[in-house]
Write a structure and sequence with these properties.
The protein is mainly β. Helix content is about 5%, strand content about 45%. The longest helix is centred in the first third of the chain and has 13 residues. The protein starts with 8 loop residues before the first strand and ends with a strand.
Length: about 525
């Protein structure tokens, strides 16, 4: 006797009719049959199944699409032209789908046979869901992925996020980026704008010129997400983690707070990146048309925050080898986006990460030897450069190497033409090991291994080891505090090591801190 769940399996081969030139209609018929049964499994045997998804191939609730592995291939047919989505929804008004599983087959977006770059309105998503819950991708392969997103689960309703859209898992998938006709389009392999998501143990690859065009591996909005155990090689950014302040369960529903964000980014390895991990504090007024004036921004005093984020045990290799042909700003972990309004980072823990800069570019750039031109772009290990306020930030036990500018830089006295200053409260920078940092000289400014700026209230900078291993030391300063009001700042037990008999690397404590620094 067999006791258990009996699944209704259907074979895609059984739904192709003689007059069909490809499998587009076969997929439509198969999903309709499963929907009529109120759920089931669509099996894709080994083989190649060409489709022309205009419009998108539909989904239904309680649906599993499963193949035999990488050899089960759903391929965009030659000459398909522009399209929005292969599988899924083109609009949030489409019927809701729940409990949808995709497992063990390949999406081939065929940029050779269909060399049409994605563009506004025809984003060429492999999967797009806009009205959903309980969506799972496992052991999928995207080879190659060409559109704006390979996987997009987006609960945005314009002015709010639909909080009933949730629970997305992407695990053990592989993504290989290729740009049709070499045209760059903004892209993330995985884009999730919903609470309750896990992205784990995936691999992302971009080779040759694609290292310039492959913008991001993973983008998570709306918080309450875990990004863990992923590996990338060549994508410009590993993770973009962005806040969302409010959601609703319907257009007329009461606002639901999406704070704290509750994001964990841990155990990932991002290689050959330009910016490893970026944090975004999104404001509800960011996309207002026309854009707000500075005075209008100042009137927005409500605190908007990215809150409760853990970034731990990641290995980030920042590659500058394409600097001479495609100069960029380079960061291990950083802030991105805009800064107007009352924006905060709250309760951020960054610990036990390994960030290293590598690469040579032409005859003027070799970061491992401390050689970069005076006009080299921004290049920091951990840097929150925007004048966004910082509260309860712990940066501890990280290894940071070869950064031309500061290994750790927090706070801002101004940004561009604005006089806005960061409030910096409850900061701990302890027990980090910084090696061969701050060797870029850009007079009249100065650089340091650790730089703390803004209106400082409570900071601990203790137990850090700062190594200058060059034959002739190149750093100017160890720890720098720049002019601004400050109180209760502890600087203790930090060590500077060099090959020199007597080092010239000192702390730079600007005037105005007398009586506030305890060293």
């Amino acid at each position: 006797m067999t006791i258990g769940l009996v699944l209704d399996w259907l074979n895609i081969l059984d739904f192709k009719e003689d007059e069909d030139v490809d499998y587009t209609q076969a997929f439509r018929r198969a999903v309709a049959a499963i929907e009529a049964r109120q759920g089931g499994v669509l099996y894709i045997p080994s083989g190649t199944y060409e489709v022309r998804p205009n419009p998108a191939l539909p989904l239904c609730s309680n649906l599993t699409i499963i193949g035999d592995g990488a050899q089960s291939i759903v391929k965009i047919a030659d000459g398909t032209g522009a399209y929005k989505v292969i599988f899924g929804q083109e609009s949030s008004t489409e019927a809701r789908v729940e409990s949808v599983y995709f497992e063990r087959f390949t999406i081939d977006q065929n940029p050779t046979g269909n060399p049409v770059p994605s563009s506004n309105g025809v984003s060429q998503f492999a999967f797009s869901l806009k009205n959903f819950s309980k969506v799972h991708f496992r052991k999928m392969e995207f080879n190659p992925t060409t559109g704006a997103n390979a996987i997009c689960c987006n609960a945005s309703r314009g002015s709010y996020v639909d909080t009933t859209c949730h629970d997305v898992t992407v695990e053990q998938c592989r993504f290989y980026r290729k740009s049709p006709n070499g045209v760059y389009v903004d892209n993330s392999a995985v884009y999730l704008n919903c609470p309750g998501s896990i992205v784990s143990n995936n691999k992302f690859f971009a080779e040759g010129n694609e290292t310039i065009k492959a913008r991001g591996c993973i983008e998570t909005h709306g918080g309450k997400s875990v990004v863990s155990g992923n590996y990338s090689e060549g994508y410009a950014t590993g993770v973009n983690a962005a806040s969302r302040e409010w959601g609703r369960d319907s257009a007329n529903g009461e606002p639901v707070s999406l704070t704290p964000s509750n994001i964990t980014i841990t155990g990932n390895t991002f290689t050959k990146v330009k910016k490893g991990i970026q944090l975004w504090v999104n404001h509800p007024e960011d996309n207002t048309v026309p854009a707000l004036t500075e005075a209008e921004w100042e009137a927005h005093t409500e605190e908007i925050s990215l809150d409760n984020v853990v970034i731990s045990d990641n290995t980030i290799t920042v590659d500058v080898s394409d600097y001479t042909t495609s100069p960029a700003n380079y960061y291990g972990i950083s802030l991105a986006g805009d800064y107007q309004g009352n924006r905060w980072l709250h309760n951020i823990s960054i610990g036990t990460n390994n960030i290293i800069f590598t690469g040579k570019s032409g005859t003027t750039v070799d970061v491992e030897e401390g050689i970069v031109p005076a006009d080299f772009k921004s290049s920091y290990g951990i840097a929150f450069l925007l004048p966004i306020h910082l509260g309860n930030i712990s940066i501890h036990n990280n290894l940071i190497s070869n950064t031309p500018l500061s290994g750790i830089y927090l706070g801002r006295l101004s940004n561009g033409g604005t006089s806005k200053v960061s409030n910096v409260q409850g900061i701990k920078i302890n027990d980090n090991i910084l090696t061969n940092c701050a060797y870029l000289k850009q007079p009249p400014s100065t650089t340091s291994f650790i730089d703390l700026r803004g209106n400082i209230l409570g900071a601990s900078i203790q137990g850090n080891l700062m190594n200058d291993k060059f034959d002739v030391e190149k750093a100017s300063y160890a720890i720098r505090l720049t002019p601004s009001p400050g109180k209760d700042i502890y600087i203790r037990n930090n060590v500077v090591t060099t090959k020199q008999q007597v080092t010239q690397i000192k702390n730079l404590i600007s005037a105005g801190y007398e009586g506030t620094v305890r060293a």
